[in-house]
């Protein structure tokens, strides 16, 4: 019997639930099978495919190219979705087959069958070889699912789903097929295992980076940019989500210590939690070379970590695999992990860098878990007092569980600084409290970038410019992707009147954290202090196209409009916001400036009454009095603001703030400026 060998794209299709339907309604089942065959035959012929055989409710066919096969599969699924709907699963693989006069055989056929078994009705699942052929074809969208171990196949196989419109993309929890048993069930002893789980994950990332082909991803050092997307938790326990997010953050923090590697911040990366966007689209939005994605599943003392590294320029998957291990005594891996990552990216580590990367977060899993909970509350943003207080208590608890846990002390210091940023507590009191854990962290570990970042922020709020700059530059030296340090330096250059360095540092901030409106808004407010009001307005108009109606950006645009003297336009924007639209202190100022005294005083009374219950920065009240033209009360409240520590961002800019230009000849105002400049 003659045989020929061919490289082809292999397609399996199958009607889900056909056997049960046959038993329930034989006539309907026959009609559905006939419609399936009619659609299959027509589409296969149009796309240049060849039917090999029917088998019951399924088919096996081959195509000369991956593109033809995928086009055919999409066309068929669109037809199958029309009434009466036929629940068809489709699987595709590219490989060698051996053809005889009556059959086709080969491992590739077996793999295609296994891939089809994973599919759900309406979906098209493909192997990594098919996906590689599609990567430069813009008409196709695919989504990475997982790595699977198929029965009777001696290799793990990355599987992707076609994600074009009208095609179902299955969730991992829906996937069941002809695979080896996968780790699953409950998420027990979750918190006790948290610390060691991270190290396994980092070890696996190092492995996949090291084993990438040498001719792929040959970016220059200054082009090495990576985004770590939120890893998916495959456990059903709700508490696993918080921890898995924390794992993502720690990967980001760890990779950020490597010189020459620019790592997108957690704030921007977390925007893609649960996203359906393609890797190509995400990489374009974040402007990165590499995307790392994956999942974590834990069962008792076993952990499975799955990861996929993508070169965004070519949309090629550099590596995808899974990694199984026990949660036992593996902290010693972290040193090798760090070195491996640097080697994979062709970066030579200095002795100092190696020393920094050798530091473990803690040897106490419970302290680590509590710390991650504290970070979750701290990073929710918005400055809600109840969340900041929870973060404060959790960080304190972490330091009690491990008195040498440097990052927990830093987290506590950062929490106190957030009280200041959002104007929730008096700065002087918060700075005193923040200094204690920050200095404790420095004593424990003098090679931690976040420690110097916290110390730099404290000095910044104390108007200690030179000290702040030393700390902040040290933070960047240790951690080149430390966004907060760039942000604070940008503000210092703003108050020095240095537009070039301000823009340079804010552009760096936005490159590392492109989706954080907090920092985008900061840049607009910096333009305000520099008197570049129109630039601030234009910058906000640009970003409001991407973040329509964002409260922070609307506020900053309105602030710059007030600098231009366009108070009516500013008022319209202030009152359009979804929060504090009628009680905002800058709104009160603008009302005062156009002679709407009654409206301005209503907001003033609101703020004065609010101050009886919670902390309100005196600077805000002074601003409303300034709009009303009440010089005495303006100076009284500015002096009160300085007494409680000042609102760093606003108070340090008094000399450049156009609102207070009429006070320049006032001796009391000059005395204030002398204290802070």
TrEMBL record:
Membrane-spanning segments: 194-211
Keywords: Membrane, Transmembrane, Transmembrane helix
Protein name: Guanylate cyclase domain-containing protein
InterPro entries given in the database record: A/G_cyclase, Adenylyl/Guanylyl_Cyclase_3/4, Nucleotide_cyclase, TPR-like_helical_dom_sf, TPR_rpt
Pfam families (alphabetical): Guanylate_cyc (PF00211), TPR_8 (PF13181)
BP term (GO), one: intracellular signal transduction
Lineage of origin: Bacteria, Pseudomonadati, Bacteroidota, Flavobacteriia, Flavobacteriales
Domain Guanylate cyclase residue range list: 9-116
GO molecular function: adenylate cyclase activity
UniProt xrefs under PANTHER family: ADENYLATE CYCLASE, TERMINAL-DIFFERENTIATION SPECIFIC-RELATED (PTHR43081), PH-SENSITIVE ADENYLATE CYCLASE RV1264 (PTHR43081:SF19)
Entries under SUPFAM superfamilies matching the protein: Nucleotide cyclase, TolB, N-terminal domain, TPR-like
Organism (species): Aestuariibaculum suncheonense
Keyword presence, Transmembrane helix: yes
């Amino acid at each position: 019997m003659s045989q020929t060998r061919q490289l082809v794209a292999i397609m399996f299709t199958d009607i889900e639930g056909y056997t049960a339907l046959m038993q329930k309604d034989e006539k309907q089942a026959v009609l559905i099978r006939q419609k399936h065959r009619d659609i299959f035959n027509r589409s296969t012929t149009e796309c240049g495919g060849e039917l090999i055989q029917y088998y019951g409710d399924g088919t096996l066919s081959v195509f000369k190219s991956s593109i033809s096969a995928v086009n055919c599969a999409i066309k068929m699924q669109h037809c199958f979705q029309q009434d009466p709907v036929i629940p068809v699963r489709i699987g595709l693989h590219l490989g060698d087959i051996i053809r005889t006069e009556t059959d086709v055989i080969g491992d590739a056929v077996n793999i295609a069958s296994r891939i089809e078994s994973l599919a759900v009705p309406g979906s098209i699942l493909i192997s990594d070889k098919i996906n590689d052929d599609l990567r430069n074809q813009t008409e196709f969208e695919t989504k990475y699912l997982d790595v699977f171990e198929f029965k009777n196949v001696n290799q793990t196989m990355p599987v992707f789903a076609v994600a074009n419109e009208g095609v179902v993309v299955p969730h991992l929890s829906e996937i069941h097929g002809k695979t080896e048993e996968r780790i699953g069930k409950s998420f027990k002893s979750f918190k006790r295992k948290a610390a060691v789980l991270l190290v396994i994950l980092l070890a696996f990332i190092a492995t996949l980076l090291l084993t990438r082909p040498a001719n792929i991803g040959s970016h220059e050092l200054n082009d090495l940019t990576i985004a770590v997307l939120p890893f998916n938790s495959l456990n059903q326990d709700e508490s696993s989500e918080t921890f898995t997010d924390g794992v993502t953050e720690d990967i980001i923090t760890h990779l950020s210590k490597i010189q020459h590697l620019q790592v997108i911040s957690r704030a921007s990366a977390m925007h893609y939690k649960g996203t359906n966007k393609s890797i190509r689209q995400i990489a374009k939005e974040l402007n990165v070379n590499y995307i790392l994605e994956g999942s974590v599943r834990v069962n008792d003392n076993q952990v499975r970590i799955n990861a996929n590294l993508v070169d965004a320029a070519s949309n090629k998957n550099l590596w995808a695999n899974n990694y199984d291990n026990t949660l036992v005594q593996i902290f010693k891996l972290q040193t090798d992990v760090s070195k491996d990552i640097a080697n994979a990216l062709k970066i030579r580590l200095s002795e100092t860098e190696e020393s920094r990367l050798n530091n473990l977060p803690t040897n106490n899993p419970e302290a680590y878990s509590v710390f991650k909970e504290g970070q979750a509350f701290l990073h929710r943003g918005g400055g809600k007092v109840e969340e900041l207080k929870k973060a404060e208590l959790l960080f304190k608890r972490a330091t009690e569980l491990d008195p040498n846990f440097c990052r927990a002390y830093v987290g506590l210091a950062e929490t106190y600084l957030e009280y200041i940023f959002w104007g929730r507590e008096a700065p002087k009191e918060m700075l005193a409290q923040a200094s204690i854990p920050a200095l404790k962290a420095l004593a424990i570990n003098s090679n931690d970038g976040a420690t110097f970042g916290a110390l730099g922020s404290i000095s910044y709020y104390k108007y200690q410019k030179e000290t702040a700059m030393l700390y902040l530059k040290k933070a960047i030296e240790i951690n080149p992707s430390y966004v907060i340090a760039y942000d604070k330096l940008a503000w210092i250059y703003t108050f020095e009147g240095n537009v070039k360095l301000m823009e340079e540092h804010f552009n760096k901030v936005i490159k590392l954290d492109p989706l954080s409106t907090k920092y985008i808004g900061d840049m607009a407010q910096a333009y305000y202090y520099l008197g570049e009001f129109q630039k601030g307005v234009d910058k906000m108009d640009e970003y409001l196209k991407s973040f329509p109606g964002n409260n922070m950006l609307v506020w900053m645009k309105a602030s710059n409009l007030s600098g231009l003297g366009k108070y009516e336009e500013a008022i319209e924007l202030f009152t359009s916001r979804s929060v504090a639209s009628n009680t905002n202190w800058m709104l009160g100022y603008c009302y005062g400036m156009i002679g709407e005294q009654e409206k301005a005083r209503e907001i003033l009374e609101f703020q004065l009454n609010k101050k009886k219950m919670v902390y309100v920065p005196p600077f805000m009240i002074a601003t409303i009095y300034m709009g009303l033209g009440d010089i005495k009360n303006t100076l009284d409240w500015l002096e009160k603001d300085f007494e409680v520590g000042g609102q760093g961002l606003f108070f340090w800019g008094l000399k450049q703030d156009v609102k207070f230009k009429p006070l320049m000849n006032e001796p009391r105002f000059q005395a204030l400026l002398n204290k802070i400049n």
